Amino acid sequence: MIRVFNWFRRRSLERGLDRELQYHFDRRVADLTGAGIGEPEARRRVAAELGLVRVREEVRDVWLTRWFRDFLYDLRFSARSFLRSPGFTAVTLLSLALGIGATTAIFSMVDQVILHALPVREPERLVLVDWNGDDLITYVTGSINLMPYPICRGLQQQTRLFDGVLCRAEIQVNFTASGDPRPVAAEIVSGSYFPVLGVGPALGRVIEPADDAATGAGPVVVLSYDFWQAQFGGAADIVGSKVLIGNHPMTVVGVAAAGFRGVDVGAVPAFWMPTSMYADANLDTGDEDLLNGHTRWLQILARLRSDVTLAQARTGLQPWFKAWLEDSTLRPGFPRISADHRREYLATTLELTSAPQGHSVLRRNLAQPLWLLFAATGVLLGLACLNVAGLFLARGSARGREIGTRLALGASRGRIGRQLLADSLLLAVAGGVLGAAVAPMAVRGLIAFLPHELAATALRDTLSLRLLAFAFVASLAAGLLSGVAPALRAGGEGLVNSLRERGGTGFGGVRLRKAIVTLQVAFSLILVIGAALFLRTLTGLLAKGPGFETAGILSFAIAPTQNGYSDANASRLVRRLDEQVRALPEARSSSAARFAFLNGGAWSNQVTMQTDHRTVTDGIINFNAVSPGFFSTLGVRLLAGRDFEKSDTLPVGEIAPRCAIVNEAFVKRYLAGRDPLGVLIARGGSSDVKPNSRIVGVVADMSYRGVRDHSEQVFFPLFEHDDTGATFYIRVRGAAEQAIPAIRSLVRQDDPRLPILWFRTIDEQVNRSLSTERLLAALSGSFGALALTLSLIGLYGVMSFVVTRRTREIGIRLALGATRASAIRLVLRDAVVMIAAGIAIAIPCVGALGKLVQSQLFGVTATDPATIAAAALVLAAGTLTAAFIPAWRASNVSPTHALRLE
Amino acid sequence: MPSPRFPIPQGTLDMLILQILSLDSAHGYGIAQRLQQISRSVVQVNEGSLYPALHRLEQKGWLRGAWKQSETGREAKFYSLTPACRRQLAVEKESWARLSGAVDLIFEEGSR
């Protein structure tokens, strides 16, 4: 490969060879003349002996292989011809750079979120263990592959199948090193976590099985490398220092290896602590030992033995798991269930799924949108290639005479084809370099669409080697794709024809170019329809809104139990703060809710109702607990009955019958045709639940998990015995931000060590919860616009070409008395056929692709006729305009001028 | 009747060049002349094929070329062996000896 350098020093090599041969020549001539031969004769003989031309060629072949040398000459020739037509070059480069840049940027996200395997030892052997059986008895759904701890311990005994089993849970705790406590995300992990993953320390040690041997055994934390760098500046003396988790002292024993960020893409832990210390992470529920009980709170990952397949492990586990299930029905507190139900429960199995990328909620939420966008950029890149191919064909027919001349001089068709391919490859690689250069910027733009704290920690905008490789492959593919058609055509045309033609009137590939434009129209219609669907989804959701007033409302959240508060003390604190915030001069009104709205999560269960008979809801109902004035603060209409009053609130620690407020959707579905007020209800669906909360009011529907959400809801008064935290909603006088300092000092006065988790306006919150929709709408919108532009350019190009070709014909028609309108019709007919064919191709494709996007849509189906019609209309109008310009020019042809072209 | 001068067998030109250069460094014309002398004009070397061979050997790193003053006072490109090449030459000579020895043996066997 060193020989490549010879290309760059070929001039000095040539000079050297010349001198060398000249020396030989002169010496030989001198020898011959010395032997009595006349000089002219001597020169002639030596020249014949040496064969200078052939020697030079052969030596050049030694310097650089022939085909490679030719290829480099081709590239040089291409580069020069591109520089001669800068307009053409700029347009093609730009369309390729856009296509490649967009594809690379989206691929970067796909790679980081979906494809990237964990940076651990042999990630391909990791499996996620899941079980959905106890949904059958508890009816609690929505858990994210959560499992009870004893199953993890049981699986660790299955050494025939697994090389190791770990469990982990994501936790939110307050971390204090020095100064104020900070709320951070962390992982609580089994002692097997680091050994099974094969991740070592960067400093000190990692968590070991001994730390996790018994409850309370290991009051230690291991910091993540990123957190150590950001928070402690990478201080080497961190090992051995004391920190507070909540208000529990722990020792930092080490820092995990750089680059390791836990097993969940999108949740970067600040530190790891052993499961034995769950009480210190405030996971203690008070009534169950989490290490031995059946509470589901962890995800389990196992490492398959190298000689065991996934299917073998699945079947191998069943006997053990069946025994475990049997055993679990005997434990105290197992719900009373019917025999059928019991049989169903015992028939459940453990599910194993390959998990080289770990476990990620972010991936679950973003995978589909990202694949959709990736597919869209693929189409866009295809469009760009078609455009470049079209431009090449146009240029190729302009170069028809040049190529014809070269063929006549003896160039082989293969050689000419190679030249044209070199053109497109050079262009594509240049486009790829440009694309890769803009990709990081595009990735930053993409990340900006996602909720901030997630994007800031989990996703990176740097170009990895993988990404560059991807961009390179994409460029090569683009180059081949856009170059193949013109290259093949160069070989196909008759030599005599091309020489006989007049400059600029080449007949080259009109049919091929029309086919390309038809495909472009089809591709861009697909993208435009996609853009229209996602735009309608976003505007639909924004117009619908969350069902309550969003302007002028500020929310903030606290989690006192994370700071070591007991449940009762936390309840008292929330009540105290609720009173004080209401009294602030900045607050028009204020209220507290146990769970935040529009945050993705919810508190939910079945509901048992007592009317004239006892019924259990067939679906899951969402709950929240709120303080008086909640509905009026958010502007949710009270439809019947009354709001909660201060007297509905029980003293902290007291448990007694309460009242409840249900929403309209709940009444419609479960209490249709009867007066909901006075009906007794209770949370839970099992037979021992006693409905004892009286419905005192009905409110209009509002969103809970997200803006799309339209669920049945039941509200209870706040301040039960187990309020662990609260989100406060304040209708602010004036700008929302002005109330923040007052609230901050209020909380600080009560407890200077209690952090406020966030301040957000509801508008912000709505925007956050619509981030995916916004991402899809913005990107598909810009892709659609780009696609439309590309196909307009393509159509305009082809129509101009056709018109130039037919100028003479049109001139004759006009001379014979045709009207200008008929000339326009003549040209437009061609365009209409192409556009109609493109639309006819696109619509069945949209029908087929519709199923893939349906779940991302809201208030519109993927095959919504109005949307498709509107998109097709926009496309048809745009493309017809593009076609009309050349048509109009054609109609202005003066017959004499056209005929003189001959 | 065979021609008194026959074309050099494929692949042996490189070895002959290396052998000549193992005695002393030389320029292209010098090598050509010595080839003629040594082989007593039995072997015909096409002078045109000498230069591609020299450049190929230089490319391989077996020869090193340097411009020096020649016996006529003019600058010429002198080729000399690199150390790596000296080792290689020993190996080649050895295998050539074995091959030609074997061929001789076969001929003798046939003529007995």
3D architecture notes:
The complex is a heterodimer of chains A (902) and B (112). Chain A is of the alpha+beta class. In chain A, helix 13 (361-398) packs antiparallel against helix 19 (510-544), helix 13 packs parallel to helix 25 and helix 19 (510-544) runs antiparallel to helix 25. The relative contact order of chain A is 0.10. Chain B has a single domain (6-111), classed as Arc Repressor Mutant, subunit A, CATH 1.10.10.10. The two termini of chain B are 24 Å apart. Chain A binds chain B through residues 3, 16-17, 19-21, 23-24, 26-28, 49-51, 54-55, 58-59, 61-63, and chain B through 27-29, 32, 47-49, 51-52, 55-56, 59, 70, 72, 74-77.
For this entry, what is the oligomeric state of its chains?
A: heterodimer
Terminal Cα span of chain B: 24 Å
Q: How many helices of chain B does DSSP assign?
A: 4
Main structural class of chain A? alpha+beta
When the domains of chain B are counted, the total is 1
The CATH superfamily of chain B bears the name: Winged helix-like DNA-binding domain superfamily/Winged helix DNA-binding domain
Kindly report the CATH topology of chain B.
Answer: Arc Repressor Mutant, subunit A
